[in-house]
Structures are given as structure tokens and as C-alpha cells.
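Morning run. Coffee first, then this:
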Amino acid sequence: MAADQSFRQPAPLSWHQFFNSLVLSMAMLVSACAPQPASARSAPESLAPLVKKVLPAVVNIAVTETVSGGDLLNELPPELRDTPLGREFRRRFGNRKEQVAGAGSGFIIDPTGIIVTNNHVVGRADKIVVSLTDGRQFPATVLGHDELTDIAVIKVSSNDALPSVPWGDSRKAEVGDWILAAGNPFGLGGSVSVGIISAEGRDLGSGPFDNFLQLDAPINPGNSGGPIFNMDGQVIGVSSVIVSPTGASVGIGFAIPSEAVSRIVAQLLAKGSIERGWLGVSVDERDGKVTIASLDRNGPAAKSGIRPGDVVLAINGDKIDSSRGLIRAVAAVTPGNTIRITLRRSGRELEIAVNVGRRPNEQAG
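And here it is:
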């Protein structure tokens, strides 16, 4: 039997149906002609190509460090330290030294075996072993580390060029951008998780240079030092901190932006340590104004004529609107170099040249 080629004919429209149809058509036409917002960038259909591209350069880091009984005692909850249990622990282990194993993550930034990780992963290690995703293992040595930013650089030696990943620019990252986290959570090497950037510029009170990216990608113990990738396979952050009442991921993690990490790494590779600029001032921050509260009388700022009450507007033409911004801007200057500080004093603006000093340990500005 031949297939029915006829079409079902619609019933004639009533006047009301015709009017409503006309209004709807006009509305659709106006909508189509109106300016449309930029479409959101969608996630790729699969992240497998990205994972295959970057994962070979992500490493697991196993460390061994020697701790004393006193260090172990500090790990006891405060409420137990002066109890019979705490005193017995002190008696048995107070003078004993123990070998403690730890683990973290890192990533290779140069085929010669240069690896970036967190200082808290390797900073006190006696022995470091790096494992690649292909099963190869290498002993590693520390080239340099910086406690204030929690960054360390280690190196392994290989007869072959090792896979590496490039830096991205964290300053171009935006809240809502997709990211991929990779590392060694709970010792499960070669693990990845995906999420977005939840916030920028987070200050967790852990140090004067806090400026974290907040992430919602699951990050757990063992991810420390691991890379955070954008969708182009570039490193835009280094996993460093999680917020968790349980010790496991609750969807709030923090990464050090690559803009800061890459500068620290370059200095560590060049000198093995970090020299930060220093003005010798303490400041008050209120209503977006950074005001000089006091000065070290032997510091660079005092010697250059800066006074208490001066409001800092800019450094080398870049606007300063927070005390953290001032600290970071000055710290980024190599000691011995001169900067231009724009101030407001008694209602007028002036510019003062300051020869930046070397930041003493534990100084704030």
C-alpha cells in the first residue's frame, strides 16, 4: 500500500486566534532584532582531551621528615596536654625523634625537571621522592622555598625530557570560569576534578600576601601544590588551602594565583630565596583610603620625607586602595630600586621618590 502523502489541514483561525498570533509574531520579531547579551562560554563536551594533555606533567610528591616528640605533642588537642594522658605522652615521646611520612602534589614547568609545589609540602622534608603518572620515580632536591607565599621549587634529574605545562595569566581569569584541578588527593595519584572560580582576591589571614582564588572544584588533603588549569591547559593557580570542618572537601578550596607564583618561582630559580621591598611604615585602612599611621625612623619612607597622616594614592602610577595592595606593590620591588609614591597631604597631591629597602623578617610593610 502506498504511503499516505496528504497533509493535515489546519482549521480556519478565529479573529481572536489571528490577533494573538499576530501579536506573538511581532514580539518574536522585536526580540530577534534587539541586542542580545554575550553568550556564556559552555564547558567542553568532554574534558578527556585536556586531561590527556596536562596530566603527564602533574606529579605526586612523597616526603619524609624527622619530627621530635615536642612537635608531636603540639599535635595533641589543647584539652589533653595537661591531662594524665598528655603527661604520659610527654614522658614517653618527649625526647624521641620520629620519621613521619607525608604527601602532596606538584607540576613540572620545565622539561629539565623543574617542579613547583607548596612550601608546606617539602619545606621541612629530609627526603623527597617524585612520582610521574607513567610510574617513573625520581629523588628530588629543593632549589628554593618561600614561607610567606607557601611556594617551593624542587628539581629531579632525568636522562629524558620530561612533560611540562605552561603558565597562564590568572589576571585574565574571571569568576565563573571553568577550571580543572589535578593532584594526589588522599594518595590517589593522577586524580582530576572540575569546577569554576567562585571568587577572587580572598584574604584568609594566613599572611600579608593573601590573594587567593576561591574554587568549588573538590580539593582534598594531598592536592596541596597541585596545579589549577584553565580550559587551554595553562596553570592559573596552585592548590594551597581548603576550608573544611571534616578534613575533606566541602567544595571550598583556595589556590595561589599564577601571576604571583610565576614571579616567586622565577626569583627562586635565579637566587634560591626571595628579597622583598620594604618602606618601614604601618598604615590604617578606612573607606578605601590607605593612611600612614607611623614610620620606622630609620626606614626608607621616613628618610624620604613621608609623614604620618599622608594618604597613599599610587605607586609608580598604579592606584593603591588597600593596605594589602600597598604591601604587595612594595614587596614586588627589588630592594635598592626607587619607586614613585603619590600622596595626598593637607589637601594637595605630591609625589615622593623612595629608595626601597630590604624587608626584614616578620615586618608588615
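The first helix runs from residue 15 to 33. Good start to the day.
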